[in-house]
Structure formats: C-alpha cells, structure tokens
Design goal:
alpha+beta, 13 strands, about 40% helix, globular, binds magnesium ion
Length: about 525
C-alpha cells in the first residue's frame, strides 16, 4: 500500500508569495488557456504545488515553431511576464500546477513512490492538431516528492534535453518536445556550482509505466481504472479502428497500444544509434514518446555494448539491451494492469502474456523495415535475403569501429557509383567489397537512403561543446548545433564539422546523472 504525501505535507506551500498572471497584469495576448484535467480527474496522483521564484530570469532558448503550434505568442513569452509563465511563477487563472505521483523500477529495483521531485505539470493546452498537450516544467523547485534532491536543474542538462529532444523530433522519432529553457539566476550545486535553469517541455501526456505502477500499488482499484480510462481517452487509443476504447476489451487493447508504440519507438532508437541511458519504468511513457533525457547519447562507432551513463555500471541500459529492457518494462506495466484485464488472475496473466508476446515480432518488423530503408532496399525484399545482408554489415561495422551515421550517407554515395568513401572506413577490404557487391546487385535507391539517413545528429562532443559554452554565457555554439540537428537530412555547405565523428582525442564519452 502506497500513500500519497500526508495531507499536512500536501497543504504545505512555499511561504513566499506566489504571483499570478493577474498580479503581473499580463497583456490579453498572453492569456494562456491551461486546463487542469489531470489534476481534476486523478487528484490522488496530483499534488497541487507552486514553482520557486527565480532571482534573475533570462531566456536562453525559445522554440518558436512549437510556440506557434501551441497557439502561444512568442513575443509575449519573451517578456518578463512571459518568462514568469515559463518558470511557473505566474499561474494563469484556472490552472492548477501539480507534482505528479508515480512509482518506478529503477535499475530493476521497485520504488513505490517517486513522483515529480523537481517538476510540475502546469496544465494542458490544445495543440494545433486538436489534441491536448501537457505543459510541464523541470527544475522548478522542490516538491513533496523531492526526497534528498534540491528540486533544481542546471543550465547544461536542461539545454541537453532541449537539443536532443528537438533533434529526435526532427529525425521523426516520437518524443516530448522542448518549448524553452530559462536561466533562473540561481546557482545549483552539482560537482561544481552551476547556473540554474528551468526547462518548459510539452508532451502528449506525462503518463508513464510508473504511473500505472503507482496506481496499482495504492491498492485502489477505482484509481487504477480511472487512470486507464483517462489514458485511453487522452491518447485516442480508441479513436482509430481497433483502438482501445472501441475494442471489446479496452484495457487489454490499451496495453496492446503501449506495446506497439514502444516496439516502434525503440526500433527507431536502435536505427539511429540512440542510447537513452536510464530506461527505468518511470522514464517510459505510455504514449510511446521518448522522455527524460538524462545521460543519453548517440553512438559513433557501432557497438551493442556501448554505455554512456556513469551510474549504469552493470550496463543494464547499454545500446544493445534497449529492446529487451523495453519488453521487461512492458511486463511491469502488464502486472500493474492485471486487475483490469480479468477477474481471475490466471486468466489476466494469460491475456497479458499473449499481448506482450507481440512486442518481439513488432519490434523485429519495425527494425528490419528500418534497416532495409537505411540500405535503400525495397519494402518487399525477401527477409531471407535482407536479414543476412544486414547482420553481416553490422558485424563489419563493429569490427572496424565504423561511425554509423556518416557510413550510411557514404553508402548512398556508393549507390551513386563512388564506393571509395565507404571502403576507406573498413579494415577488411575483401569483406566489405563482397558485401557491397551483393548489396549493389539489389538495386539500392540513393535518394531514398538520403531521406532516412541523417547527416547531422547531436554528436556527443558537439553537445558537450555547446553546453560548456552556454554555461559560460556563450549561446552561439548552441545555436549552430540546433540549426544543424533540426534539419538533419538536409546536407548544407558550411556545416561539415557537424557531420563527422568526434576527434580521436575526445576520449571515451561519458554523461553524468548529476542532472
Ligand atoms: P530521473 O532519473 O531524472 O528520471 O529522476 C528520478 C526521480 O528523482 C524522479 O522522481 C525525479 O523527480 C527525482 N529527481 C531527480 N533529480 C532531482 C532533484 N534535483 N531534486 C529533486 N528530485 C529529483
Ligand atoms: Mg524521470
């Protein structure tokens, strides 16, 4: 049985005065219609809370295209009043900012009460596509879920999330989006003293596998059912044919939708060489959007054992383990959903196992189709031809420590007739020549390859360079990197340094969880 923070904790509010939009007399154009649907529908999982004041707010980056999609006015967001909204220190009328409760398996161990320790859901707004989006803050101060944490975030990690999530979006990979990063003017103690910041992010929801684990652990069957109903409604799991709400068994269909979304998502991560780094169940959405960019990074040389996070000492979340971990996390979701699947537990387990069994074939199909596309080969290609070709290529890439991203672009050049850039990357020339001959015989389409193989990804050394400069006050490298990675397939003169792997002396890249 898991209890929410005791009511005296819930009632406790920061003592300083909380400004509202009325207090700061925002111009009418700044009015933001924020719903409080999550807080209303699932109050047991929502602790009303307020953001901490920021001594000296300064806008570091604003996502203007996203601003427009959300019906917000960029010029207004740039004003001092707009910054108060992005910091959560001014709350529009009708909004109820909350810290969300969730549980989670962290590195395999269950923690029944995690929740937003340093984040707030400001509310929901309507996107241009007609669907709701969460407006959420990270680094907005301690909440009742903060445990030992300071509730804060540093400029570097918040800009990392901004850059990487926007790069993922541009790559066509489902993800939470980043709306803005505002420096607070408050120092944050990590290994060193860092400037503090708040990230404003947008998601189709912040419902996680851990949200369902939380509801299940409370033992409140009604809460679990309302959470599932709200997820079905929110994500339109019922609006398409065969969707959850329209299905004979909506909760089983809900589980099936999450399995499908995650199989597709993780296949996309694998195809682009993305390593999430902390695939705990609290960091896995049910929407299938990538969430919580901490010690994440992109592969240079292809190697399934690659780990970037300094806290992942066992390599649990290594690049090559990600599909298995996703399946493991989905099994934890199934456990949480069991009471909704059937009255008889044996029956519920049998149903869940059957649906969970669809993860591997769906993952395999998405990954194989993606690999065929990367190689410029036709959809209908016989898997008995495609799969051995793919496996052999991955072995050669690993053997010669080849940078995957630039390799696939050079492979399109080989499809156009010049194989030298590809050949130069390999130690075993007879092997790559043999492979190239078999591949060329299948008639690869170079233009199609360039549409799916990015030129520019947020390479680790470039991200580090941009974050170090931004932390020291120079935003120019961040701007250059964002320019490159937000049009990742469009090769442009002058951006050559964004297209090549790290220099030899960059060393073994590590990210740190001091986020
Ligand atoms: P993460 O590993 O970032 O997904 O966070 C795991 C849990 O730790 C979540 O409950 C976070 O809200 C919480 N957390 C992480 N960093 C902090 C912090 N600086 N202060 C308070 N809570 C934090
Ligand atoms: Mg998290």
């Amino acid at each position: 049985m898991v209890a929410l923070p005791s009511s005296d904790v819930v009632r406790r509010r920061p003592t300083r005065s909380v400004r509202t939009l009325d207090d700061v007399s925002l111009a009418p154009s700044a009015t933001v219609d924020l719903d409080n649907r999550f807080a209303r529908e699932l109050p047991e999982m929502a602790v009303p809370w307020r953001a901490e004041e920021a001594p000296d707010p300064r806008l570091l980056v604003l996502n203007e295209p996203l601003t427009a999609e959300l019906g917000l006015d960029a010029a207004t967001l740039r004003t001092p009043e707009g910054l108060c909204l992005l910091l959560g220190t001014a709350v529009p009328a009708g909004a109820t900012p909350v810290a969300q409760a969730y549980a989670g398996h962290q590195f395999g161990g269950f923690v029944p009460r995690l929740g937003d320790g340093r984040a707030l859901l400001l509310g929901e707004l309507v996107h241009a596509d007609g669907r709701l989006r969460d407006l959420h803050l990270k680094g907005s101060g301690r909440t009742p879920f903060a445990r030992g944490g300071d509730g804060l975030a540093a400029v570097g990690p918040m800009l990392r999330e901004y850059v990487v999530s926007e790069a993922m979006h541009a790559l066509g990979i489902p993800t939470t989006r980043s709306l803005a990063v505002v420096a607070t003017g408050r120092p944050v103690r990590r290994e060193t003293l860092q400037p503090g910041a708040v990230l404003a992010r947008v998601a189709s929801s912040h419902l996680r596998v851990g949200s369902f684990q939380y509801a299940r652990a409370t033992g409140d069957a009604d809460l679990l059912r309302r959470l599932a109903d709200s997820a079905i409604d929110r994500h339109g799991f019922g609006s398409d044919d065969g969707g959850a709400a329209g299905a004979d068994h909506p909760y089983l269909a809900l589980f099936g939708s999450v399995v499908a979304a995650q199989a597709s998502l993780v296949a996309r991560w694998m195809l682009v060489g993305f390593v999430h780094g902390v695939m705990n169940t609290d960091n896995m959405t049910i929407s299938g959007e990538t969430i919580d960019y901490g010690p994440c990074a992109f592969l240079d040389a292809f190697d399934p054992a690659t780990v970037y996070s300094s806290i992942d000492t066992g390599g649990r979340y290594a690049y090559g383990n990600q599909p298995i971990v996703a399946e493991w996390n989905l099994a934890r979701l199934a456990e949480a959903l069991l009471p909704l699947l059937a009255e008889d537990e044996e029956r519920a387990i049998a149903l869940a196992v059957e649906v969970l069994g669809t993860f591997r074939p769906q993952y395999d199909a998405a990954w194989s189709a993606g690999m065929r596309a990367k190689l410029g080969l036709p959809d209908g290609l016989d898997p008995a031809v495609a799969l051995p070709l793919i496996e052999e290529l991955l072995a050669l890439l690993q053997q010669s420590h080849v940078d995957g991203t630039s390799f696939y672009r050079d492979l399109a050049t080989a499809a156009r007739g010049d194989a030298e850039p590809v050949r130069n990357r390999f130690l075993d020339l007879p092997a790559i020549d043999g492979w190239l001959a078999r591949w060329r015989a299948l008639g690869p389409d170079a233009a199609a390859m360039d549409r799916v193989n990015p030129v520019y990804i947020p390479r680790n050394h470039l991200v580090e360079e941009a974050l170090t400069a931004a932390t020291a006050g120079d935003l120019a490298p961040l701007g250059g990197l964002l320019d490159a990675v937000t049009s990742p397939f469009d090769e442009r003169p002058g951006l050559e340094r964004y297209a090549v792997p790290a220099p030899e002396d960059f060393g073994k890249y590590r990210t740190f969880c001091g986020t």
